[in-house]
Amino acid sequence: MNTYSRLTAANTAKSNSLAKLSSGLRINKAGDDAAGLAISEKMKSQIGGLAQAKRNAQDGISLVQTAEGALNETHSIL
């Protein structure tokens, strides 16, 4: 029984190592590093928020450019 349990543990460790190698990720599941996974998920959400903020800023710039064009056209008409 002892040999069987050690063999099972070795196979599990091998499977975990192969999963990490094949994915290229340090954390594949919460059991690998729960704190690291939580930090990673928080950073992913922050990156998503920053990407949306960038899009919002670009939309604001476009709005100002459109308004500037309209004002220039109004000025040229007057």
TrEMBL record:
<dbReference type="InterPro" id="IPR001492">
    <property type="entry name" value="Flagellin"/>
</dbReference>
<dbReference type="GO" id="GO:0005198">
    <property type="term" value="F:structural molecule activity"/>
</dbReference>
<keyword id="KW-0966">Cell projection</keyword>
<dbReference type="InterPro" id="IPR001029">
    <property type="entry name" value="Flagellin_N"/>
</dbReference>
<protein>
    <recommendedName>
        <fullName>Flagellin</fullName>
    </recommendedName>
</protein>
<dbReference type="GO" id="GO:0009288">
    <property type="term" value="C:bacterial-type flagellum"/>
</dbReference>
<keyword id="KW-0282">Flagellum</keyword>
<feature type="domain" description="Flagellin N-terminal">
    <location>
        <begin position="1"/>
        <end position="78"/>
    </location>
</feature>
<keyword id="KW-0969">Cilium</keyword>
<dbReference type="Pfam" id="PF00669">
    <property type="entry name" value="Flagellin_N"/>
</dbReference>
